Every structure is written in structure tokens, then in C-alpha cells.
């Protein structure tokens, strides 16, 4: 399964670099940045290139930062028009780790999406010391 | 009636800066996307509907229809955020009788013909001529990406 991480600024490659510290170098992962001055057309072209590069045969999971943000909006457009794509928003590191660890064992996008959302929620809490 | 809460030119239409930053300071309850292209494309409409946060009413209208609605007694203008794709739409709104005192120039994206005037505003000569027409009508043009930064008058960047 292919993975695309798409976010504002340079969060996407930063997140990939971070998880690579735990899981080693990752194959079939593409990062998409969205910077000030980038047009939606340019963003669309980046998605197009990443999707073509990965191929949709085994499915592509797209992780985006913010619901309503342009990376999520454009990714949603691809999910609506293209088979084999699942978009998630509000991604965090536990979610990304879960996806990278499970993707070869769980081929089904919907099932993996549920597991990722669960891991993402479990990964957020406060530390209690008393 | 009153005056319109906020008018923004932004070729990303509804996106992160709007939902995460502007809406929380503006206290708008309605977003009007005044754009012929978005109004005509079911796809764009669907995306805008997905991007619009819960609790905020969304109208996606061709510019002329948006102008008519904004001039109608039905519109609670101070609660309205108007989003426009480009300066042409802003000019069309004004020419259709909508009273605007100030326009927030947000994202006007790069292309090969355009020159960079700020981190998020790229203009060609036609854009500048259209902005000059808005300025002549007494409209204040403020370049400002997010609320939490100081605005700059557009022509102070150009001249």
C-alpha cells in the first residue's frame, strides 16, 4: 500500500523523517508540502505525480493535517474521483506509525483507516504524576 | 443590514487559514463564496461543503446572485464572510451594487506571468489595474494572510 503525507509548511517530510527514526527508511511513501504562494493547481499536480508514482493497485492512504485545509480539500477531491484512495485528516505521529507498521498486513484501506484512527486517539492523553 | 463582516480575496476559497484562523476572530455565521466557477461545478461545491466547518452556513453563488443576496434584507451582513477567488470577482460585486469599505487580500497565487509582492500575493498588470479601480472607489485594500499579523496597504507594496 502506498502512503502520501500532505500538509502545510514542511510538516510532511518532517513527520516522515521522525518516524524513520523508529521504523527505518520507508518505501512507497511520498510527501507533499503546501507553502505560501503555492496555487491549488500546483498542489493538484503534486498529488497527481505522487499518485501516479505510487500506483493505485494496492491502494493509497493519504494523511493530511487539517480538515478544511487545502491539502485535505485537494486530497478529498482525489478520493471522490479515484478508486483505491482513502484520505484521513488530523494525522498525528501515533497514527502514522500504526499505518506504516500495519500496511503490509492489512490490505484493506477502510480497515487500516479505522486502526489508524484508533491508534491516533490512543496516542493522545495527558501525563498524570499523582 | 449593516456592513459586511469581512470580504476576502483568496484563490484557495475555503481552506485552513479561513477555518482555523479567520472564522474564530470574525464570529461569522455565514460564508458566501461568490464565484461563477465554483457555483457551476458540482465538484467544487462538494469540496467547499466538506471544508466548511459545522455550524457555519454556506452559500456558493455566482457573483451576480451573491451581489443580489448581499443587497437583500435577508442578509445579516455583519455576520457574513465573503470569499472571492480573484480581484475580478471583487470588482463585479462592487459594480453590482454591493457596498464594500475594505477588502482583505489573502492568497493571490503565483503563475508564470505574475510578480511577487508579498509572501502570498502575486499580481500581473491586469490585476494591478483592477485593484487600482477598487482603490479609486475608496475601498481600503489590506494584504493580510491571517488575523494574527499586521496588515499592509496593497499599493504600498506595489509603488
Tell me about this structure.
The complex is a heterodimer of chains A (130) and B (159). Chain A is α/β, with parallel strands linked by helices. Chain A contains five helices and four strands, in the order βαβαβαβαα. Chain A has one domain: Rossmann fold (3-Layer(aba) Sandwich), CATH 3.40.50.510. Helix content of chain A is 49%, strand content 18%. Chain B has a single domain, classed as Fructose Permease. In chain B, strand 8 and strand 9 form a beta hairpin. The chains are: A alpha/beta (130), B alpha/beta (159). The interface between A and B is medium-sized, with 20 and 24 residues.
Offer a quick outline of the entry.
Chain A has 130 residues and is an alpha/beta fold. Chain A contains five helices and four strands, in the order βαβαβαβαα.
Task: Based on the model shown, name its key terms.
heterodimer, A: 130 residues, alpha/beta, Rossmann fold, 4-stranded parallel sheet, 18% strand, B: 159 residues, Fructose Permease, two-stranded antiparallel sheet, 7 helices, 21% strand, globular
List the helices and strands and how they pair.
The complex is a heterodimer of chains A (130) and B (159).
Chain A lengths: L1 E7 L2 H13 L5 E6 L5 H15 L5 E5 L5 H12 L3 E5 L3 H10 L6 H14 L8
Parallel strand pairs in A: 1-2, 1-3, 3-4
Helix pairs in contact in A: 1-4, 2-3, 4-5
Chain B lengths: L5 E4 L6 H11 L3 E5 L1 H5 L1 H10 L5 E5 L1 H8 L9 E5 L2 H9 L6 E4 L9 E2 L5 E2 L1 H12 L3 E4 L8 E2 H5 L1
